[in-house]
Amino acid sequence: MPKEHSKTMTDHSHVRRSYDELAASYDTRWRKYIDATLALAMEPLELTGHERVLDVGCGTGELLRRLFDRWPRLRVTGVDVSPNMLRRAAEKCTGAALLAAEAHRLPSTDGCFDVVICANAFHYFRRPDCALAEFRRVLRPAGRLLLVDWCDDYLSCKLCSLWLRWTDPAFHHAYTLRACREMLQQSGFVVGMAFHRRIDWLWGQMCLTGET
Questions:
Q1: Can you say how many angstroms the Cα of residue 145 is from the centroid of all Cα atoms in its chain?
Q2: For the chain, which residues make up each domain, given as ranges?
Q3: pLDDT surpasses 80 at 10
Q4: pTM across the whole model
Q5: Helical H segments across the chain, by residue range
Q6: How far apart are CA 8 and CA 164, in angstroms?
């Protein structure tokens, strides 16, 4: 096995192990954070209700559940590396297809989704450029990407990032809004909306949309 591939698999095993352990308590432990960040993720979505949507890093399925509550005829797929998180998602979202997979290796054919959403997961990706390339690959022409994540433009988030690099093997890197916009552009997305916002005294979030 090539050395780079072996390291990637080891890195993702940290994410998988961490979230397998958190799955049972995640929704209650992080309820305020979940509600605030997913409200931000839902804000720019303009759907007809019949789209094919992929949620990358779907976790316990909270965003999937909210999508179904608002647009019950969506065709939704959730992807995550944690089997335990996917089991929790399956309890909430019986109409969703749920797959165990990594963001840089999506088990989907080219152009099969209208919308890709990645909320609160981008900072775990060891290969963000490869993940963005995969998002673009599975989107149809004129398909849309919505990316929401921590924003390192805020000092409190920057300090959290520094702390997590020392204490959490699952964490990789948080980005500024400018850096994230540039990554989307380099991956071939036409960036539309791009803004950041503080959701409480600690967390600042960024939200970007892109079109293929």
A1: 11
A2: 3-211
A3: no
A4: 0.91
A5: 3-22, 26-29, 31-42, 62-70, 83-92, 128-138, 155-167, 177-186
A6: 18
